[in-house]
Fold:
Amino acid sequence: MNKSDFKTEIKNYLIITVASFILALGVVGFFAPNGIITGGTAGLSLLLHYITPYSIGTLIAAVNFPLLIIGWKYLGNMFAIRTVLTILIISIFIDFLNEVINLKPFVLDMPLASIFGGIFIGIGLALVIKGNSSAGGSTIIARIIASKTEIKPGTVILVIDSLIILSSLFIFDDTARVLWSIVSIYITSKI
Structure:
């Protein structure tokens, strides 16, 4: 690795670290205390958190790592390594903020939490992409399916997010909470 590539990698990891912290703030400060779900494996992890005793960060790592192993060859080595580190950093930040610091919710209001949580998650994901990485999960599945079929990655992600939101109907007996989760996913995608 030459000096220029090394500087680029350091820059990528700095961006990924900042992005992971912003994502963790969105999850811990807005989504988790208001029972709002996001898309992808983070949304699945939040759902599992509400019905199991496991921490959100632990579940994010547990849900993503099998997908990473399956998708490693589709990601390429450096992208896969950055993605593994991104998932680890996000998981650590979420559990640190939630379990160690016991960060208080930024707001206990579903509309505001869905809007601002969506903004935080959107900014975090945009920065993860800028750091030439992925937050894992549905992106990996989308890349694999797109490489084997003519289905676009965006369609796969939409189907996965929809299934996660529909699943939340069985966990929350609150349609409004589910609808606000859809609003948060829309805001995240627009950011």
About this structure: The chain is about 80% helix and 0% strand. Residues 3-34 form the longest helix (32 residues).
